Amino acid sequence: MATDGNAERPLFSAVSNSARQLFLLLRCISFAPKAQVQITQKGLRFSAEESQVMQGLVFLEKSLFTSYTYTKPVNENIDDDDDEDTFPIFQISLSSLLETLQIFGINDIKDRSTNHEASYGANGAFARGGAASAFETRFLGMTGMCRLSYAADGDPLRITLEETGVTTNCELTTFEPEFREEILLQRENLAQKIIMRASWLHDAINELSSTSPSRLTIAASPSAPYFTLSSNGPLGSAMVEFSKDPQLLETFQVPSRTVNTYKYSLIKSASRAMEIASKVSIRCDEQGVLSLQFMIEVEGGGVSFVDFRFVPYLSQDDEGDEEGDTVEDVGSE
């Protein structure tokens, strides 16, 4: 537990002028009831996992907060301030955190701008324009202040919310982390990188749901058909095909044909990010590990990123029944 000195100077404290902004970002990974939190000097890293075959990552950069303070523990000998293994990490109830952040009431954001001016640079990095986003106050109304603090290892995560003169204090119990390994995407061995509007991916995934599919197959090829999403289910099969038109696929880097299959319900779990993001970068490495990285515009003209990783079905199991399916475990590499 924290000492009196630590209580006066917590290990971490931050203030945001928008509890709604934090809520909408963290809700993107609400497919799991729990999340791991890592406090770093550059921001907060939230991660959720599903059966070692899906992970969702949200990084709340310190620029999202009006104030952000991380104090290195005095009893810890840390030589490298950038070493992630030295930063505090703990697990919390993500569902409880989301309930706390919306305690003053947050309506679902159904308005999604279809006129984003954001684009990607030549190197594949996201670049942003001045387009409207779901986070702007004209969509959300007035925003409430949120203060986060963590006194010391083992202490609860404290949350204070203030809006129109009303203050609410909450403490969330912290637990030992259950996982530390990420599902690795081999960026140096990418088999494909495609950048497109997130709303188009969202529409395609929803269209395929009509067959009640259990699996989603993603195929990319340097020749037609260039990029397809297909599904099979008890109600039939369906396929959505995208042409190579730069108006559809802003970036298309596919040296050779790739075909990988994933659990449809897991891909569907990224829908909240698809709904509010302006762009998505769809990357796949040579092992078939899939990354969906969403660029989400936030208040003040900035951007945040939400990254999902998915492990594919093993190719030899593609014809097996659902009960016998196994997936390639690359998360322990």
UniProtKB/TrEMBL annotation:
Which processes are annotated in GO (biological process)? DNA damage checkpoint signaling; DNA repair
Q: Which UniProt keywords apply?
A: DNA damage, DNA repair, Nucleus
Concerning Gene3D superfamilies, the annotation shows: 3.70.10.10
InterPro entries, alphabetized? DNA_clamp_sf, Rad1_Rec1_Rad17
The protein's location, in the record's own words, is: Nucleus
Q: Which residues cross the membrane?
A: none
Q: Name one GO cellular component term.
A: checkpoint clamp complex
Tell me, what's a Pfam family for it?
Rad1
* Chaperone as UniProt keyword: no
PANTHER family listed in its UniProt record: CELL CYCLE CHECKPOINT PROTEIN RAD1
Its family?
Belongs to the rad1 family.
Protein name as annotated? SsDNA endodeoxyribonuclease
Q: Upper lineage ranks?
A: Eukaryota, Fungi, Dikarya, Ascomycota, Pezizomycotina
